[in-house]
Amino acid sequence: MKNVFLGLVAVLGSCVIASGAMAQEAPEWVRIRSITYAGSGCQAGTVAQNVAPDRLAFTLLFDSYIAEVGPHISLANSRRNCQINIDLDYPSGWTYTVYSVDYRGFAKLDPGVNAIQKASYYFQGGSGPSKETRFYGPLEKDYRLRDTFGNETWSQCRSVRSLNINTQVRLENRFAPHNSGLITVDSIDGQVIQTYGFVWRRC
To answer: Is 72 exposed, middle or buried (0-12, 13-18, 19+ CB in 10 A)?
Structure first.
């Protein structure tokens, strides 16, 4: 099976670049306290987690984040998801919002089979934006896409809430039930030092 990569870049930095290439303020330091995950695409024992010693980058490697449809394949296999919780540590007096997230992957779809890649972003106890991309068969290719956001949702100023990212991939073949398709996720990577990703402001 061809390896497929989904690269998630959710990044912060001391010189964050927003729309119009205008430099934004940002905290002097940001660290990852912890990363947790759960879902049908990232069950216990199927994910390898590597957080850099300086806590400024992370990688999640998946063994079973695979959605499939086709003859003799259970309908339950047509959707996989992974709920990721990122707990950040940063100085008080700051709030942030998601600005951009990059994805890379691969889809192989017979005629009449569609794939959907979707992610929702929200802070603990709140709601936030969702982004969705659709692919239509016949198709067999790597893809790269970027979710971009405005100022929809900001973290709270007086309490630190973890960021939740609910990713999912699913397939539809109701108009071609005898045809097959698959979409997989092999890795999600993130950094907290980069030139794009999150936008910060003072409370």
So the answer is: exposed
Domain assignment present for 7: no
Count helices and strands (H / E) in the chain.
0, 14
Contact yes or no for 192/98 (Cβ under 8 A) = no
Q: By three-state DSSP, how is residue 46 classified?
A: coil
Task: Using pLDDT thresholds of 50, 70 and 90, give the confidence band for residue 139.
Answer: very high
Structural domain includes residue 5: no
Instruction: Let me know: does 152 contact 123? Beta carbons within 8 Å.
Output: no
Spatial CA neighbour of 151 closest among 97, 104, 80, 70? 97
148 falls within a domain: yes
pTM for the structure as a whole = 0.77
Kindly tell me if the per-residue pLDDT of 5 is higher than 60: no
Number of domains in the chain: 1
Domain interval for residue 148: 16-198
Q: CB of 76 within 8 A of CB of 171?
A: no
Tokens 């400024």 correspond to 56
The answer to whether the bond into 111 is cis (omega within 30° of 0) is no
**Per-residue pLDDT at 147 exceeds 90:** no
Does some domain include residue 50?
A: yes
